[in-house]
């Protein structure tokens, strides 16, 4: 017996009603616990204020152009100048009997702060001394002038990432002035070539730690995600993103071998046209969205209870609206990289032929493609998706980085002292020096205590990089309380305010 139209409509109405009830219940009942945080006021005894001395130390460091151009190509004179500045300005750090400095690989710095209890596993604070190149005529202010305008310091390295170097040193200098000695030994590592892979810097630092007998770290904190505001739809308050995972990376060289010939008698295909077609297919056929299968889904679930009601409905019910969110995230380069493996073609090489052979059809061509791999995919999957016909991909040596996913427990040591109340774990879409230290721990946290607004995203590795003096002050206090809270067992929580 065929159901009547009336019966079908009633059944459909019942399904819709049940669906609406489920969506409403999840929207209203899904909450994520946040910890109470005690305000850290400028008047508190444990607040480090950026006075003229601290401000000028930072600015002097920013004025030194420690540019890395390529692997093995960095400004050694500038790096030595920065070393001397650091050793001169931070006198307690470099004279304390509990602090040891080693210069590794000629230009990187490794500090050991000796604890009183050797049974406790050490931890590591990392940053880097080098910066990326600049286009002088594209800046409003000199990129190495460290000029101050409207409360902001403009200079290359302000957010990437000399605020980490000087923030850590200022906090340690202050602690030592108060007679501090930790119970747990910790290391401070400043690499000199992070911007070009860290092969000479962080890799050498990691090897030195191994030579010193280190086998395990409690956790590692390095540069990474930031405090963002206005970047998450439906949330007006600042959100601290702490990177507990990073995407993998591999550089594939796509090689095509064909037949040589003369342009007056062309074949249907040659090596150049085959490779051009392959690159076109790569661009036109992106990898599928993996939203919902990796850790990025948890970020939206965690934030849902803080969103405006329409966004809260969507993000509380990703089991239903997940494809809609994935489609929206795919529309912007910055968020598209979160939900899928992305590809960048960065080099195209044609077989070298002299000008007298302009009519010669080359037999071999290749291109270089960088793949930032989603956490649920593998290098092998990416390679197999490309291979076929005349295309022969192979992995460029020393460019493969697998996903790193951190454990949860020491995560509280970071999140309890971030700059704002709302914090979540996130996925780092790039790679940093953490890769060279990953053999010591799975508890790797990628967080830079700087504020990012939508208009600031282009400043990262771009023009007019800047940080507010207030934010630099917050960064110093972040590292200060991190070191203290590791000692305290995280019983006292601090908030450093949201304003810049």
From TrEMBL:
Pathway: Lipid metabolism; fatty acid metabolism; Amino-acid metabolism
GO cellular component, one term: extracellular region
InterPro entries to which the protein is assigned, alphabetical: Pept_M20A, Peptidase_M20
Annotated catalysed reactions: N-(9Z-octadecenoyl)-L-tyrosine + H2O = L-tyrosine + (9Z)-octadecenoate; N-(9Z-octadecenoyl)-L-serine + H2O = L-serine + (9Z)-octadecenoate; N-(5Z,8Z,11Z,14Z)-eicosatetraenoyl-glycine + H2O = (5Z,8Z,11Z,14Z)-eicosatetraenoate + glycine; N-octadecanoyl-L-phenylalanine + H2O = octadecanoate + L-phenylalanine
Signal sequence, renumbered to the chain: none
Keywords: Hydrolase, Membrane, Metal-binding, Protease, Transmembrane, Transmembrane helix, Zinc
Pfam families xrefs: Peptidase_M20
Name listed for the protein in its UniProt record: Uncharacterized protein
Organism: Lottia gigantea (Giant owl limpet)
